[in-house]
Design a protein that fits this description.
alpha/beta, Rossmann fold, 7-stranded parallel β-sheet, 39% helix
Length: 354
């Protein structure tokens, strides 16, 4: 190892993943390329099928001397370690390897089709077989890796994610006040529970508040919802619009049944939005005492929590304050620094064994 760690990064999903994992990778890499640049030089490893001009576009968001190379060249670049940040290994580089496993969802709710199930789980098995160290975002995620992959607990490093506050685009959406949900509208994220919970609110609250849903996968239009509740499905939105949505929300609801961390709840807290969340998986670990919890999947309990938060100004003010304090504990600078420390330790240990 030289003075700067020579780090290869699996960048296959970098252009298209703009959700939680994509935000994680981009934020960490930006710190690697700026504040932490004296300690590390990044080479993005991309699929061999990409022409050179297309591959260069992977560097658009990275300042400094970051480079890009095809995966097949990884063994010839003198890399100290290769980092796989996308929840598993879909290809295996030579040399020292570290992977970030965010959660083990394909094992918790496997696809009913055997072939699809094997395809979803294979990157995790490859990680367990080839990684020198695994990074997890929470103690819950660490326990899941041990449970489902049998990976040694003493080789798993827990590094919490950070929170970014993107600049606002303009102002909060006009119209009636709203409850906000951010994420993929599927069963895992608790969309059915949320819609049913909103429908169970008293008539006066349903008439006053609408539900805004922002995130990839939702229908791209407004429309009728169960029991007459008003829902606006925005689809995937820009960071600037997301900032406006957080800023104007009366409450943020995070009804997910399974998370490896719980980033949207902390993002909402960072904007001073009172948070209502399920008590499932890693969510209490991330949100701490700064959220109003309900049992995962319990529609009446969720409706009661929403009603309480919207109807008690003193409680909402307390949760806003608690959320701001909680979110302040999570920074991408700290996450990136701890990640680089972990990568450097593994690379140094591997070099000593040679």
């Amino acid at each position: 190892m030289g003075e700067r760690l020579s780090l290869g990064v699996d960048a296959a999903n970098l252009p298209r993943d703009r959700r939680g994992m994509g935000r994680y990778v981009r934020c960490v890499l930006r710190y690697f390329a700026t504040t932490l640049a004296p300690r590390v030089r990044v080479t993005l490893l991309v699929p061999d099928v990409l022409p050179a001009l297309v591959a260069r576009r992977y560097l658009e968001d990275l300042p400094g001397d970051a480079a890009v190379a095809h995966r097949s060249a990884a063994g010839r670049l003198g890399l100290d370690v290769v980092w796989y940040p996308w929840n598993g290994m879909t290809w295996v580089a030579p040399g020292t390897k570290v992977a970030t496993v965010h959660d083990c969802w394909p094992f918790v709710s496997p696809a009913p089709n055997g072939s699809i199930r094997r395809n979803e789980q294979q990157p995790f098995f490859a990680t367990a077989a080839n990684a020198d160290t695994i990074i997890a975002g929470s103690q819950f995620a660490r326990a899941e890796v041990v449970r489902h992959l049998g990976f040694p607990a003493d080789k798993i490093v827990v590094i919490p994610l950070g929170v970014t506050i993107p600049p606002r685009q303009g102002s909060a959406p006009s119209g009636d006040p709203y409850v906000l949900f951010v994420g993929h509208a599927d069963a895992r994220k608790g969309m059915g529970t949320l819609l049913a919970g909103m429908a169970a609110l008293p008539d006066a609250l349903r008439a006053k508040y609408r539900l805004i849903v922002a995130g990839k996968g939702q229908p791209g239009n407004d429309g009728p919802a169960p029991d007459g509740i008003r829902v606006e499905f925005l689809g995937q939105v820009s960071d600037a619009l997301l900032a406006d949505l957080y800023t104007g929300a009366s409450a943020f609801v995070f009804p997910s049944s399974y998370e490896g961390f719980g980033l949207p709840a902390l993002e909402a807290m960072s904007y001073g939005v009172p948070v209502i969340a399920s008590d499932a998986a890693s969510i209490p670990e991330a949100a701490g005492d700064a959220a109003l919890y309900f049992p995962s999947g319990d529609v009446p309990a969720l409706a009661a929590a929403i009603q309480l938060m919207l109807g008690d100004a003193q409680l909402a003010a307390h949760m806003r304050s608690a959320g701001l304090a909680r979110a302040a504990n999570f920074s991408w600078e700290r996450c990136a620094g701890a990640t680089l420390d972990a990568l450097s330790r593994v690379a140094s240990a591997s070099a000593l064994r040679l």
